[in-house]
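Supplementary Text 2. Reproducibility record for the structural model of the 73-residue chain.

All settings were left at their defaults, and a single model was retained for analysis rather than an ensemble. We include the record here because the model underlies the residue-level annotations in Supplementary Table 4.
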Amino acid sequence: MAEEIIVAPIPGKIVRINVSEGNTVEEGDEVCVLESMKMENPIISPVTGKVKEVKITADQFVEGGSPMVVIES
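Retained model, structure tokens:
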């Protein structure tokens, strides 16, 4: 199976995580919300598949390019 790693597009704080390991997601589903510069940015799944790993926690600060969620498609 192919793996898709969703990375943080910008630095910021994780304010909400909408998936757990083992969940199935559809392309276009919101997997988490990243707050940066007082704006909430939805992070969208680029593929349909099963969540293999969630590498973030709520209230965690991430750098741009940091891996957040791994999806098996």
